[in-house]
Amino acid sequence: MDIDIKFCNNIDLANISICEGKLNIKFAPNGTGKSTIAKAIKFKALGQDEKLAELRPFKHKADLLGEMYPKIEGMDTIKSVMCFDEDYVNQFTFRPDELVSNSFDIFIRTDEYKLLEQEIANLVDMTKQAFSNNPALDELIENLKVLGGAFTLSKSGLSRSSSGMKGLLTLPPN
Question: What residue ranges do the domains of the chain occupy?
Answer without folding.
Answer: 2-87, 111-169
